[in-house]
Amino acid sequence: MKALHRFLACAGALVPIVAAAASGQFTFITGQVSVTKANGQTVAATRGASVDPGDRITTAADGMAQLTMVDQARLSLRPNTVFVVEQYPQQADSTEGVVLTLLRGTLRTFTSLISPASRDRYVMKTRVATVGIRGSGNILYYCEQDDCDPSVTGEAQGQGSIAVNHTIEGSHIVTNVVAGAAPGLPAQQGGAQSVITGPGQTVLVLNGQAPRYVPTPAFIANAATTMTNAKSAASTATDASDLHAYAPGEVIALPEIQPPPAPLVGNNGLGFPLIDASGNIAQDPTHLRDIVIAGAASPLAAQSVASDMTLEGDALRGFRAYPVTVGGLVVSMNGGTAAEAGSVSLDGGGTIFFGRWDNTSLSFGGAGVTLPGGVHWIYANSGYPMYLSDVLTGTASYTLAGHTAPTNQNGTAGTLNSASLDVNFTNRTAHVGVNVSVPGSGGGSYNMNASNVPLTLNNFSASTSDRLVVTNGGGQSSSTNPNLSGIFQGSLVGTGLTGAILGYGVSDRTSGDSSTWSFISGVAAFQGPSQNSLAPYREGRVSDAGGFLTDFIQSYATTDRPDEVVLDTQNRVTAFTAPFGNQGGSHVSYTLGSAQVVESGFDPETGMVWGRWSGGAAQVGGQPVSLANNSVHYIFAGAQSGPVTLPLTGTATYDVIGSTSPTDFNGHVGHFNSATLNANFSARTADASVNFSINGQTWNGAAANMPIYRDQYFSAYAGSPIAGLPNPNALVITCAPNCGAGATGSFDGFFAGRNGSRAGMVYNVGGNQGAVAFGQRPGG
Hints:
Blueprint: H1 2-14, E1 24-30, E2 33-36, E3 42-44, E4 50-51, E5 56-59, E6 64-69, E7 74-77, E8 81-87, E9 98-110, E10 122-125, E11 129-133, E12 137-143, H2 150-156, E13 162-169, E14 172-176, E15 194-197, E16 202-206, E17 212-214, H3 218-223, E18 264-265, E19 275-276, E20 288-295, E21 298-305, E22 309-312, E23 315-320, E24 330-334, E25 337-345, E26 351-358, E27 360-363, E28 369-371, E29 375-381, H4 388-391, E30 395-403, E31 415-424, E32 429-437, E33 445-456, E34 459-463, E35 468-472, E36 484-493, E37 499-508, E38 518-527, E39 538-543, E40 555-560, E41 566-567, E42 573-578, E43 588-591, E44 596-602, E45 609-614, E46 617-620, E47 623-626, E48 631-636, E49 640-641, E50 651-659, E51 671-680, E52 685-694, E53 697-707, E54 713-718, E55 729-736, E56 745-752, E57 758-765, E58 768-776
Parallel strand pairs: 9-10, 19-49, 54-55
Antiparallel strand pairs: 1-4, 1-6, 2-3, 2-5, 5-8, 6-7, 7-9, 8-9, 9-12, 10-11, 11-14, 12-13, 13-16, 14-15, 16-17, 18-41, 20-21, 20-29, 22-23, 23-24, 24-27, 25-26, 26-29, 27-28, 30-31, 30-38, 31-32, 32-33, 33-34, 33-35, 34-36, 36-37, 37-38, 39-40, 39-48, 41-42, 42-43, 43-46, 44-45, 45-48, ...
């Protein structure tokens, strides 16, 4: 009996035993807290006192209280709060509804112990918004204009009441209260509108206006800590100097109770939809063409919109490179004679065209240079969807279907003896082999072989400085003789990747006699099996934690298969693939290792997830990467089948639905203030900005008229141009009070959803990095 009594006593200490006929009891009190009962009597709240329907609870400036209800829901009231328990059952298994009204201040709830079947009975109300729970934890804030926290006063200026709801766990549905609407009307009636939130998302409702996503105010993040770690009621500052100086590995705003994470792969068990964009694969909306030109042993791969190409019949005369940028590449081939031309039809539609101009003048936007050896050209409909090679699995062999005769610098034509292209989609690699013979050349014949060539966005390339090995007829090899070199440039083309185009070049200076040197070029067309254009994928962006990238580009773009993005039960990403330095091409394994997911959020409507790893060491490519003083920021779109197709005309405004705290490489963690994203679909451009505070400085980055590449991607940077690449639009960086001149940085973003309803971006501004999730505002 003593053992049983001890067990019951311990259980009573862990789970408060609520008095009979009460809805709950006070389990924590600090400062001045009073209760006005239904009969009008006001008493001081005490620990263990019962909580009944009709109770009005008021906390003073120094007061806080925690209530544990009969169904084990926990409610925390912050300072300067007035709260009414309008309706609450007095039995845990009751089917009665719950109505909680917040008249002023801040309410923090934890309701994950309530059965999912009972959660639709819970409603939290303010004068301007109602909140229904679909999950397990939130912070609700309500104020009148004169009493609002400084971080939201600007929003409420001249507009009366304001409510803010921040989801910590699970999800919530926030609906604006419309004057004159009958109680109980669904959201689409009476002018009311609703939004659904997930962890890390914050929604603001102004009096009479629809709910909208906003960045999380600092005082809300502070209220997400446990009761015993709560900040003082007077701490409502929003500038960086007054914020808590989080260490990079410190967990921010996580719920009071965390279940142990159990890995889930892709969407399994999470309930996220697979976004169906299958109707978007019928035709590439940009009408893009992949192009390779090859002359003087130097092939060049590019892309161009069909309307920006200059043709003579089907023969290529010139093009303007896509995306169109200031100072972008313009290529023209003027004069000369057409030496040969051909075409190859692809299964499922589309054609590869190829040929050669002899004695043409080749120009790259300036004065032309006549190449007597000829300029080879080849073009076809760009591979579509553009990400397909990154997400397919299995293998495919492409067979030679057409080609030009290889030529040397003297215009001597030779023979393409063989050419092969084998693709391992699972490994995202290709094997390329070419064998040519050209009379009069120093070696007579050349064999070119490249294995494990990285394949990304349907493109591949190799040279003798990396994976290509060239041997000549004299037995010389590029592996041992630097005077023998070569290069491949190519891509998979057509809808379903049913074809491929390839340009190649060989430079042979192994002979001591320069008159026998040889510079050989040519192009080839391939046909292959149609691939599954509806293979699902998850687009993502990841910050550079290793410091491998330049000062102004510190993020990686990645397109993953859904099962490569691994989530735990709290929708936090614990593994994915992405580039990392120069290791392993475009996909290297990232796993959490001993690091922590210190911030995270997700969009329950589309499955978009974002967050930050820090502390300990992540495992990248099997090697530890210390995150003691920095972070890995990530954002991934939900799983989608089919590409994004944006509207052809009009504009759209995007609101912030989540973000990570900015970090640098010196152990500082800052405060995200705001961000904007606006799309001009008619012009196919986007404007974006971000503002944050860190280490005593407030930074702002803004980019206008960024080209939207392939209806999905946008970018900008501030810094020196990258040699050989078109310059994206400028990122303008400012800082206060003073961060010096010459700050560098970048924006790297993507649109997601069938028609671009979501967007994600990783930013680097002055060496400070973070991630932002955007949702398109209803109605533009």
